[in-house]
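Before going further, learn to read the protein records used in this course. The integers have meaning only within a learned vocabulary of local backbone shapes. The record below shows the convention in full.
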Amino acid sequence: MSSDSKKTYSIEVSQQPAVAGDRDTIGGWPLLDAKQPWPTCGCGTQMALYFQLAVPADIPHFGGDQLLVFQCPDESDASYASEEQLPAQFWDNPPHNDLAFWRILLQRNGIPTQAPDPYFKPRRLTVTEVAADDTSFGMGGAPTWLQDPERYRCACGTDLVFLCQVPEDFEFDEYINESVDRPGLDDGLMLGNEVYLLACPAHCHPAAAFPVCQN
């Protein structure tokens, strides 16, 4: 599993609040396709929009897609798989988790939801092209594995491709809405591990993407 892209983009949090229609945000208004409901955890709780990004056009396979990363604000865990071949509908039945507590989407025709994410204060993200070895929260390029590289095959039989990396202990907690009290939010994305987002280049399903956690 690797990325075909030689382009690497750094992602940073700006000081500007996000507004409806922004494509690069923590929290805010997710841009969801018309038939795509707001993701819900297996426990029944509406998931939190940790972040969304417009994938730059020159990133192979996914250029022009909208990447949306959701996780349950109550249920938190790490994601991993022991076999390279992921099971059918792994996005609904993660291989080593009791609940589908995360949802990663890649869509192209999203429109802003009527209401923003209730869990995070909307904040804009900036996406900037950088040298390949000059970023930790970024898209494209090659993953910087903390442990051994991990490779997975989508349920459709296509090898997953690296798309995005979120560093350990990224400070999502700085943007939690003070009016909500959810136990999982303080744990951060995937328990604060380094998170590698791998996605199906065949786009066999909007949720055909798998988060890998390392520390």
Notes: The chain has a mean pLDDT of 93. The longest strand covers residues 8-17.
